Amino acid sequence: MRVLVVQDDPNVQSLWSGILEESGHEVVLVETESAALKTLQTSAYDLVLLDLCLNGRDALAVTTFATYRNPSCKVVVVSGSAVFSQKKLFAMSPAVAAALRKPVDIEDLVAVCDRVHRNERSPAVPVMASSDIEFRP
What we know:
Blueprint: E1 2-6, H1 10-22, E2 26-30, H2 33-42, E3 47-51, E4 53-54, E5 57-58, H3 61-69, E6 74-79, H4 86-92, E7 96-101, H5 106-117, E8 133-135
Parallel strand pairs: 1-2, 1-3, 3-6, 6-7
Antiparallel strand pairs: 4-5, 7-8
InterPro entries: Bact_response_regulator (IPR050595), CheY-like_superfamily (IPR011006), Sig_transdc_resp-reg_receiver (IPR001789)
Domain Response regulatory: 2-117
GO biological process, one term: phosphorelay signal transduction system
């Protein structure tokens, strides 16, 4: 699976990309919304793993643009903000297939990405005390 990781924290970026690569996925990293939009313009991805808040701004435009080149692309949004509920995120963009709340358990993150890629929408990953996971109905 080709995964675009959009994350501005270099430590989290390294952790997410490392674990996804260990799981056999091809990973491309970007740090900003503009870099994500440019990357999505030139290459197709199966999944976008998006930190919703990049450098203090929401990066919601990435969710819609992700399907521009590849309509089957799915987006997993990760957010520590309570500004957008998961249901609001789903309503804002049809590309959002799952939403997770920070802090995210890394095993949950990989399981959610794999599950979304397989188009399995019902939550099989248990909700852990450290994270809250919701899939598009």
